[in-house]
Design brief:
Protein-Tyrosine Phosphatase, Chain A, 762 residues, six-stranded mixed beta sheet
């Protein structure tokens, strides 16, 4: 191998703990190269490689590139400015991509390269196991494992090597394998390829360079055509198609397996029964069989061993991770529309009461390029939860975020429940409350969504803990379990919370907060809901607000000071102050909410803020104790009051002035005329805070946000900083629209607008 030097040379792998890198490092080491490597963090692959005698170091350092290193191999996952790479270039040491080295390894001797947009890992495992069962003893280098192929790479007795061959960085075009297995060819990886034609040419090149034989899926028209046009060696086609050389006929699928009659060029070989289900897995098995034919395996031997060879799927390929209380959880690596369709159809074979799919899009480039194609893959689901895009080192792209994907879903599947989640943690809390016996939860994606699968596996392994929290037993506290929060928001949308509670007075509130603290129950404080949004996935813990009559103290003091309960609704309070001739808060005319909410957000308009009239606030602390806090201690800022975080304002002292009630009424009328006309609209007012020395509304208008619509949420055509909703709206509609607005302004100006409405940040 010219690229890495002769056997005995020293090769250093940067990012060695990735599955592809670890497998290649092991193969080179087993063939006589001195291999070392490093990565930002150790994992089980690092432990395995160390046990096999390879030198693996944690972290990055230029010191890893000593005088003996003749070549450095990098993974696409590491940045090009890592210290080892910089040091290698400075010393004139070649820095190669993983794919370049594997391509050279696969271009010598008896090799089988399995390629295609989907199914590479599974087909590579099936091929390796089939060749093992038929006595060929192959080596392998695959990006996944099964219980039998317990390592990502292994060394067999002969010279045969099976490799999962990746097209994502274009290095597939460098391969000259003995046998090439082309599973399919769908548009993907446009982060690397200039366009679809560029991607197709990559596959065309490897087929043209194959030395012994090509196997191709006849069901995929484009892949089949390219193989027939480009190959200079024999081609074996496989699939369900009538034109396939190796064909599956009379296929039957159940929850736990599949069976079919196997024909070879029109002759029945026999009936095959596989312990794995799904049409795509029959195709994967046929791909392995076609590869074995090119290697020289007898067709009857293939028929005999195919069932055992294809009995295990690699990890995260429809991997059953847990089952509890009649709910099944499965993880799948699917992240392309075609892969997701296959996984969902396989899930449907399980005959669930409801099929819930949690999906994490992978890369902004893929989400942008294939966004409109995703919803159709989810047509047979009952509910879909979309997670934020897993970036995979990419920077965000306009149109490539999950909010953009969500918009495609709402347009194409308007009647299907689509939930927009903000985090993996929020999703797991929702699933724990939401799933029912008979449900099937499919967790799909190629990113860190695997953390959700791990969380599910861990939680389901533990015993269920009985619920001890009983807040409705506290005097003055009333509420419901699993209560909807939609009625607690002006938007009229939102999910449920385990406890939705109202308190009659500050004594009841103090007792409730003390109990919550002792039981470690999360607390969410609500006012009138005028400035609040709640996710469709709901909240954990309990939501608390005062009953309508609570904390409505009203006590004029000397020198224009009034003691007011923070439970006052804004309009009612202004009417009372007007009637009694107290002036100073007219600027809050038509600003919805309670007095407590005004304080928490430092409500303001027309050049004034409520902090300018405040003397002190009486609060209930998070532990239930009472405290009076001065204005100076509360750290008021623009639309914020840090000092009230974790506290509940009960009453406050305001400094106002005496004035003629008619004059106050006239001033309020004048302000009403200037206010944005929101009558009849379901809205929470301005969505974003104004950035320093700028106007959020102006920035949003310049970014073209007026009139934008997702589902039942619309940016008003008279003000670009207001979202209005109709009766079809969901909380996810509002969140997606807000994120689209935010992204548009960020792309146009570099300014990240901060939400003014509370609840959008998880």
């Amino acid at each position: 191998m010219k690229t890495v030097g002769k056997q005995g040379s020293s090769v250093h792998f940067v990012g060695i703990c990735g599955v592809g890198m670890a497998g290649l490092a092991y193969i080179l080491s087993s063939r006589g190269w001195r291999v070392s490597g490093c990565d930002a963090a150790f994992n089980t692959l690092a432990v395995w490689l160390t046990g096999e005698g390879l030198q693996v170091q944690e972290g990055h350092s230029p010191g890893h590139i000593d005088s003996t290193v003749t070549c450095v191999v990098k993974t696409p996952a590491v940045n090009s400015d890592e210290p080892e790479l910089t040091a290698a270039r400075a010393k004139g040491i070649p820095v190669l991509r993983r794919g370049e080295v594997l391509a050279e390894l696969m271009s010598e001797g008896q090799t089988v390269a399995v390629c295609g947009t989907h199914g590479k890992t599974t087909t590579s495992c099936f091929t390796t196991r089939l060749l093992q069962a038929c006595g060929y003893g192959p080596s392998w280098c695959i990006g996944g494992t099964t219980s039998t192929l317990s390592r990502v790479a292994g060394v067999g007795e002969g010279s045969l090597l099976v490799s999962e061959s990746d097209e994502s960085d274009g290095t597939l075009a460098l391969y000259h394998p003995a046998v090439c297995v082309l599973m399919n060819l769908d548009v993907d990886h446009l982060e690397h390829f200039a366009d679809e034609a560029d991607l197709v040419n990559c596959f065309r090149q490897v087929i043209a360079q194959t030395r012994t034989g090509v196997a191709v899926c006849a069901d995929h028209v484009r892949a089949h055509a390219i193989a027939q046009e480009s190959s200079r060696v024999p081609v074996i086609s496989f699939g369900f198609s009538e034109q396939a050389d190796l064909r599956a006929v009379h296929a039957e699928m159940t929850q736990h397996g599949s069976s079919f009659d196997l024909y070879m060029r029109g002759t029945l070989l026999g009936r095959v029964t596989l312990p794995v289900s799904g049409q795509h897995n029959i195709i994967n098995a046929l791909g392995a069989a076609a590869a074995a034919l090119h290697v020289g395996v007898d067709p009857q031997a293939i028929l005999k061993h195919l069932s055992v060879a294809c009995s295990e799927l690699p990890g995260r390929r429809f991997e059953r991770i847990a089952e509890r209380a009649g709910v099944s959880y499965v993880a799948d690596y699917a992240h392309h529309p075609q892969e997701l369709h296959a996984a969902i159809q396989m899930a449907r074979l399980q005959q669930p009461k409801r099929l819930i799919v949690v999906f994490q899009p992978h890369r902004y480039t893929r989400t942008l390029a294939l966004g409109p194609e995703f919803p159709a893959a989810f047509a047979d689901t009952d509910e879909v939860i979309l997670l934020p895009v897993y970036a995979a080192s990419e920077s965000p792209l306009p149109g490539g975020s999950t909010c953009d994907l969500y918009a495609h879903f709402r347009k194409q599947l308007p009647s299907k429940p689509i939930l927009l989640a903000r985090s993996i943690g929020e999703t797991w809390h929702y699933l724990k409350r939401h799933v029912q016996p008979g449900d099937f939860v499919l967790i799909a994606g190629a990113g860190d969504v695997i953390q959700l699968a791990d969380e599910v596996r861990h939680a389901c392994a533990k015993a269920l803990e009985p619920v001890q929290f009983k807040p409705d037993g506290i005097p003055g506290v009333q509420g419901v379990a699993n209560g909807s929060l939609a009625s607690w928001s002006y938007y009229g949308v939102g999910g449920v919370i385990p406890w939705r509670l109202e308190v009659a007075d500050e004594t009841a509130l103090a007792a409730l907060l003390s109990t919550c603290k002792a039981e470690a129950i999360p607390v969410h404080l609500f006012g009138a809901g005028a400035n609040r949004w709640v996710s469709d996935l709901g909240l954990e813990g309990c939501a608390i607000r005062f009953s309508k009559e609570a904390c409505c103290e009203y006590g004029p003091e000397k020198d224009g000071t009034l003691i007011l309960g923070c439970g006052w609704r804004g309009p009612a309070l202004l009417d009372k102050l007007t009637e009694d001739g107290w002036s100073g808060l007219e600027f809050l005319e038509s600003v919805p909410g309670t007095l407590g909410g005004w304080l928490a957000m430092n409500a303001g308009a027309h050049g004034d803020e409520i902090v300018n009239h405040l003397l002190w606030v009486r609060c209930v602390e998070s532990d239930g104790s009472l405290r009076v806090i001065s204005r100076a201690e509360l750290a008021f800022a623009y639309r914020a009051c840090a000092g009230l975080q974790g506290r509940v304002a009960i009453a406050c002292a305001l400094r106002l002035t005496c004035a003629d009630p008619e004059a106050i009424k006239a001033k309020r009328r004048e302000i009403r005329v200037k206010r944005i006309p929101l009558a009849g609209l379901r809205t929470a007012g301005s969505v974003f805070k104004n950035p320093s020395n700028n106007s959020a509304g102006r920035l949003l208008d310049q970014a073209g946000c007026k009139g934008l619509r997702i589902g039942g949420a619309t940016v008003t055509d008279f003000h670009a900083n207001i979202i209005a909703v109709d009766d079809t709206a969901t909380a996810s509609d509002i969140l997606a629209l807000l994120q689209v607005m935010q992204n548009r302004v960020l792309a146009a100006t570099g300014i990240l607008l901060e939400p003014e409405v509370q609840g959008f940040c998880s």
